[in-house]
Write a structure and sequence with these properties.
The relative contact order is 0.17. This protein is of the alpha/beta class and 279 residues long. The strands form 2 sheets. It has an 8-stranded mixed sheet, with helices on both faces. Strands 6-7 form a two-stranded antiparallel ribbon. It is built from 11 helices and 10 strands. The chain has a single domain, classed as 3-Layer(aba) Sandwich (Carbamate kinase), CATH 3.40.1160.10. Helix 2 (32-47) crosses helix 4 (75-99), helix 3 (59-67) crosses helix 4 (75-99) and helix 7 runs parallel beside helix 9 (221-233). The chain is globular and about 45 Å long. It binds glutamic acid.
């Protein structure tokens, strides 16, 4: 069976959506028709019997836009914007998912949630209970209180940590890029698309220079490859694909060959804590 055929059998799926894929670039405000499609696509995955987690960025971008702030001058301002934006974001998710009969739940985490043995167990239990209850956990970094030493800093890595924590079998990173290229396609027209990565070795990690060029998110290709290292070592497959049109979710989960797939490479000695210490 090819890698893509197997994708349709995945049961526990984490989908990460970057800020730039949720907002209008001109205003930073939420792109409602896009979010509506996201809710419909994820609801359908639930109807197919999957357990789905969304890792959604956007709190800071949406909070800033709602206050007319272009760029935050202080950490407090950024954290306050996250507090405002997170509720706006969840309000919209709740409304759209309710239209399809789905219940969403908010989980805000920082690095300490996972490095501390007790809170890691609590977080894992909460995810499992939410699956039992049929809810869709929507995760973000706890930006309102996270500071440099306890933050993940980007939701690419956070989503991979969630994958490892709940033993998900698929991570889908939806972003403003089609997948992995040999170089940044925006600056190098000769760069080639890489449809499949069997083994995320140092050769690939070295490619992770530059960023996606987005001014709304914090994740470039480097953080996506680190996420890939965590997720594939924990035993999940990872796909990077373009979030331009969220209909891509059913195309991907039906096994269509779009985006870059990173094959699961479970490491027997995998310990999430080792990765967290290096962050
Ligand atoms: N947690 C941040 C937010 O919700 C985004 C981090 C990221 O884009 O990676 O605004």
């Amino acid at each position: 069976m090819s890698a893509r055929n197997e994708i349709s059998d995945k049961k526990r799926i984490v989908i990460k959506i970057g800020s730039s894929s949720l907002v209008h670039p001109e205003t930073g405000k939420l792109n409602l028709p896009k979010l509506e499609i996201l809710a419909r696509e994820v609801s359908d995955l639930k109807n197919r019997g999957k357990e789905v987690v969304i890792v959604s960025s956007g709190a800071i971008a949406v909070g800033k836009a709602s206050r007319g702030i272009k760029s935050c001058r202080t950490l407090q301002e950024k954290q306050a914007c996250a507090a405002i934006g997170q509720v706006i974001l969840m309000g919209i998710y709740q409304k759209f998912f309710a239209e399809y009969g789905q219940t969403v739940a908010q989980i805000l985490m920082d690095k300490k949630t996972v490095t501390d043995t007790e809170s890691r167990a609590h977080a894992r239990n909460t995810f499992n209970e939410l699956f039992e209850l049929g809810a869709i956990p929507i995760v973000n970094e706890n930006d309102t209180v996270s500071t440099y030493d306890i933050e993940f800093g980007d939701n690419d890595r956070l989503s991979a940590v969630v994958v490892a924590l709940i033993k998900a079998d698929l991570l889908i990173l939806l972003s403003d890029i089609d997948g992995l290229y040999t170089d940044d396609p925006r600056s190098n027209p000769d760069s080639e698309f890489i449809p499949e990565v069997l083994n995320l070795d140092s050769h690939f990690m070295d490619m992770a220079k530059g960023s996606t060029g987005s001014s709304f998110g914090t994740g470039g290709m480097a953080t996506k490859l680190i996420a890939g290292d965590i997720a594939t070592s924990a035993g999940a497959e990872m796909i990077i694909a373009n979030a331009d049109d969220f209909h891509i979710i059913h195309r991907l989960t039906n096994g269509e060959e779009i985006g870059t797939i990173f094959r699961a490479n479970p490491k027997e000695e995998f310990a999430l804590i080792d990765y967290l210490e290096k962050m």
